[in-house]
TrEMBL record:
<dbReference type="Pfam" id="PF06228">
    <property type="entry name" value="ChuX_HutX"/>
</dbReference>
<protein>
    <submittedName>
        <fullName>Coproporphyrinogen III oxidase</fullName>
    </submittedName>
</protein>
<dbReference type="InterPro" id="IPR010413">
    <property type="entry name" value="HutX-like"/>
</dbReference>
<dbReference type="InterPro" id="IPR053733">
    <property type="entry name" value="Heme_Transport_Util_sf"/>
</dbReference>
Length: 171
């Protein structure tokens, strides 16, 4: 990306931090990772994709969250507990027979982004698992309480995980 395009994207995201990441990427013909990287530094931190299993197993202890898969054709949302998983046969396998389960190609995870920004008039916090192509594999959002505020217990875990992974990725 040219420096003028990058500066324009950074300015756009500073003015519109709640923009839908995938929409901005499509409109500007850049990757979702480039859009996340263009957010103000106070809104995003990155960690190593090598921490995929550790991050997912930490999230498995948070309780009810919302996991979103956003493609060109659909937006899938799952609200519930993310199961713990383990690596086997080339996949990170979510270990429960019902609800959210499946097999994730963890080795394609190049980075993990921790994003806190306004969205639709409210604070939001999510983890974006970014693949080697710069796309977002999926996002896990901090849950909300009965007043629609971010759950403070999960937000603390979100911050602690970001701190651990940021340290691990810097090593």
């Amino acid at each position: 990306m040219l420096s003028a395009e990058l500066a324009d994207l950074k300015a756009h995201m500073a003015d519109n931090p709640g923009a839908v990441i995938e929409d901005v990427a499509r409109e500007r013909k850049v990757t979702p990772r480039a859009v996340l990287e263009a957010l103000p530094d106070t809104m995003v931190r990155f960690g190593s994709g090598g921490e995929f299993a550790a991050a997912m197993n930490d999230v498995a202890q948070w309780g009810e969250v919302t996991l979103i898969v956003h493609t060109d054709d659909a937006i899938f949302e799952f609200t519930g507990s993310v199961p713990a998983g383990e690596i086997g046969r080339g996949y990170f396998n979510l270990m429960q027979p019902k609800g959210l389960h499946g097999h994730l190609r963890h080795e394609r995870c190049a980075a993990i982004a921790f994003v806190e920004r306004p969205f639709m008039g409210k604070s939001s916090a999510f983890i974006a698992f970014i693949n080697v192509d710069g796309g977002i594999m999926f996002k896990v959002f901090v849950g909300r309480d009965e007043t629609r505020a971010l759950r403070s217990d999960q937000l603390q875990r979100f911050h602690a995980l970001a701190e651990r992974i940021a340290v691990a990725s810097a090593a």
